[in-house]
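Why this split exists: single-chain examples teach little about how molecules sit against one another. For that reason, every record in the complexes split bundles all components of an assembly together and asks for one structure covering all of them. Below is a record exactly as it appears in the raw files.
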Amino acid sequence: SAVISQKPSRDICQRGTSLTIQCQVDSQVTMMFWYRQQPGQSLTLIATANQGSEATYESGFVIDKFPISRPNLTFSTLTVSNMSPEDSSIYLCSVENPRDLDEQYFGPGTRLTVT
Amino acid sequence: AQSVTQLDSHVSVSEGTPVLLRCNYSSSYSPSLFWYVQHPNKGLQLLLKYTSAATLVKGINGFEAEFKKSETSFHLTKPSAHMSDAAEYFCVVSSGGGADGLTFGKGTHLIIQP
């Protein structure tokens, strides 16, 4: 299995500012994924990030609000831009199990509170 | 289209008693179904997976789930709860094809009373 770490684990930010979340994997992976888990809600996929190409965003998410970088096969960042209280969520990154693409390995998440 | 409904947002049981976490799904395909567990400040961990090989699926830590097509259910059970089982549990349905085919339930918070 893959071991995934995220930084920061939590943060409290003021509205209008931006936060960049880092995701590090202990092995090389082709695809990395970013999810949002709003309070009391299920996980929602934000985007899929392939190394060397633009991220693919799901309906309702746009690059200007959630720019993603994928500079190599073990690392990705998600930026939450121009934050508002509605952005308060847990943000998780994940990677696929290469032997079973339905199965995901998840990071511990970043708990973001916007005041 | 597919969807997942976890019927209970919170379940509280006493240590040593059975656990039942309920999940219903809808899918246009023959789905794969999963249960993930999320302990505080930890990433989601796969408990078990159904892929049509057997309707009763055994997972880690003594958990199992039974796929019932006629009831479109995939309930998670454990005969005897342990304090370490306290966590958030997510039922997930997949239409195949990776992360963009996954639909998560809202989660069930399992509380274990001593």
